[in-house]
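Q: Here's a chain of 347 amino acids. Please give me its 3D structure as tokens.
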Amino acid sequence: MHPRPTRVDDLPAFDAIIDVRSPAEFALDHIPGAINCPVLDNEERRIVGTTYVQVSPFEARRIGGAMVARNIARHLETRFSDRPKTWRPVLYCWRGGLRSGSFVTWMRLVGWDAQQLQGGYKSWRSHVIERIATLAPRLPLRVLCGPTGSAKTRVLQALADQGEQVLDLEALAAHRGSVLGALPGTEQPTQKAFETRLATTLAGFDLGRPVWVEAESRKIGRIGLPDALLLRLRDSPAVEIAATPATRLAYLLRDYDWLGDDPQRLADKLGLLKGLQSNETLAQWQDWARARALPPLFEALMREHYDPLYARSQRQNFARLTAAPRFETDDLSEAGISALARRIAAG
């Protein structure tokens, strides 16, 4: 029996999804749940590619074929040595070509019903783009707005805890969405990996129920929001959290207290605001950062940077905010946030 084409929609029927691309390719993005069993590692792929260009395609295939054979043998002897005869894996490479085809051939010779994903990773990528473009305009979004320190992300998490549907874009992007938003010890995903996460999340929503989301700008750190989602976000009904300035400052001091752990790094981050604030203002803020004086720093950042930025952004991007219900609060403790989420969900 010859291998038959398998489409993206068929993936749930398989026991395993195997990505045979190099570890570097896998790290950029991959099908959720896939395991990486490369037939060429990063250095081997570089050697084969260089040989293809500088010597000849034949010589590249001769060298690469030996490497692929050794790697497939190693995977069969180790990773898959305990798989039963009934095991059904699906394999993919970049375009569904030689790399996955070679591995599928050997697996089928062993006796497994291995299949090759038609079109490889590129077919998955097309599926992701199409899914976002199709689902984003249909999302029944409810947009949480409010100036910096309004605990919007924590309110989203509280809504999720209470059974509401939530699209946490900052969690998907691994970034808090501001100049100080990088998460300690956490790298952002690539743009493609973010979109894979996003498409997978969107597919899980019940479009008959509201989906709560935080108001975001076009970029979250280095991640850009797809146009279809950004347009839907800006055209959806909004609610505004109106916490008092003192409450917001107290929340920020709790939520971002880790910024005081590395004063020079914080000062360097503030330097990215050059051109948006006067040199004198930035010098004062950086002095406070180096001295770990977070209360005056955060209060000044709120008043002179984030609040004006929020006002401009909301006027430009969320026209429906003027008619949005406001939920006032002076309590952003954990209990206060839970209570606020319940009020918001009840409308």
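Q: Can you summarize the key feature?
A: The two ends are 59 Å apart (CA to CA).
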